[in-house]
Amino acid sequence: MRILYASERPPYPYFLGGAARCAHQLLMTMANELGVECAAVGSSDYAISPWADPQPGEYQALGIQGVWPNEKRRALSVSAPLRSSPRPVCDELEARARPDEWGGIIDCGYPVQVFPNFLVALADFIDDFKPDVIWSQLEGAREVLDLAKAKGIQGVLYVHDAEFDPDELRATAELGCHVVCSSGFLAEKVRRVLSRGVHVVYPAAELYFDSAGDPDGYVTMINPHRVKGVDTFFEIARRLPAEKFLLLESWKLNDAALASLQSQLNQVPNVLFVRRVSDMRSIYRQTKLLVIPSIWEEGFGLVAIEAQSCCIPVIASARGGLPESVGDGGILIQNSLNADAWVEAIGEVLGDAFAYSEWSRRALRHAGAEDFAPLQLARRFLEVCSAPVLIIAWHVRVLNAARDRLQKLPVLGRLFCRDFR
Question: Where is the Glycosyl transferase family domain (predicted)?
Fold first, then answer.
């Protein structure tokens, strides 16, 4: 089978957020463990949020096995899958180059490339690669899956965010694609919008069972944004001046966001800010406790499983899919804005060595559950790709159309349609 991952947002290793790392882990597992020919492409014109080219010094930590000029890409992606066996990262010449300078391909165990004029280039790439399945997510998914349908190729929409546009989701689902959600919570929310069955495949995390957190390390938060609860994090740090806190960039911050963050950091001296890293092990090895004070509904919460695989307990908001990712390997806070509740929970986990050891044991056990094993998740994803599409019945389409019309009426829309949002 050949699977093409295509999204307007550039894929891993250009983006290092949870959705990108999940896609990478699934693609790498399918390519290296299950014999699937995989490729990933995105838009080099993407400008919705900041992103960065991988630098040669990061290649090894990012799992980049090589970089080739553009003319090698087509032969690699069509006639011969990339080798899965380890080999030198790059020769001296290629290690000095950046893939975007010449439209090169990055070998992450499968070929990765970004294109200008994305949809036009994607159509050509599809004709060359001849995938059996096109998987898309996030920005541009509707356009990608519309192209897949036009070319008679089965599409898969992987929904990661709970903050989706219902109308856009319905229009995309009606293209005849499979719909996969990153948690049971998200699947139920999507079902209410689509009135059809959807699949659940938990995000595949890179599990670091060979690494361990530091019981004397930091209380860590990843991704300093308001929707992720960074203001609550700073309030917690203010109330616990004797504790060391670490704040790690994930979504790349622009200059304005960095300046705003720095003004907060200046007021809380026990918080260390670290720019985004290519190897998360380096962060988890310094961490004793991970906090996820999200305000919005998380689709899943990949960092919870990653941290738990390092024996690090997690305290998180009881929002969205976080109860599924945290499980019994941590504590859930019902009111994410209540700093007192966070301080109390931190005291419960870090109160004494015996309590911390027990929470660490629970964290590791939860991360080791079969539900989160990358190979099992890859097999589950392939099962979805090969299954019949869960079609929307004609009468459900009629009801959806009627509901859409009602939503445009101010009074009736509020009365009859609010539950579907």
Answer: 228-363
Cβ(122)–Cβ(141) below 8 Å: no
* Total-model pTM: 0.82
Alpha helices in 52-135 (DSSP H): 59-62, 70-79, 92-96, 118-129
pLDDT for 421 beyond 60? no
Q: What CATH number does the domain containing 28 carry?
A: 3.40.50.11930
Domain contains 392: no
Assess whether 109 and 66 both reside in one domain.
Answer: yes
CA distance 5 to 51: 18
Give CA–CA dist 366/356, Å, rounded.
Answer: 15
Give the pLDDT score at 188: 96
Q: CB-based contacts of 75: which residues, under 8 Å, 6+ apart? A: none
- For residue 348, the surrounding DSSP H or E stretch is helix 339-350
Number of domains, the chain: 2
Task: Count CB-CB contacts under 10 A for residue 401.
Answer: 11
What token pair was written down for 54?
């991988």
Instruction: Quickly list DSSP for 18-60.
Output: HHHHHHHHHHHHHHHHS--EEEEEEETT--SS---PPPGGGHH
**Burial state string for 334-356 with b = 16 or more CB within 10 A and e = fewer than 16:** eebeebebbeebbeebbeeeeeb
Q: Report the pLDDT value the prediction gives residue 286, as an integer from 0 to 100.
A: 97
Three-state secondary structure call for residue 6: strand
Q: For residue 259, give the CATH number of its domain.
A: 3.40.50.2000
Is 276 within a domain? yes
Contacts of 229 (CB under 8 A, 6+ apart): 221, 292, 293, 294, 295, 317, 336
- Cα separation, 49 vs 42, in Å, equals 14
325 is in which domain, residue-wise? 218-367
Q: What local confidence, expressed as pLDDT, does residue 400 receive?
A: 59
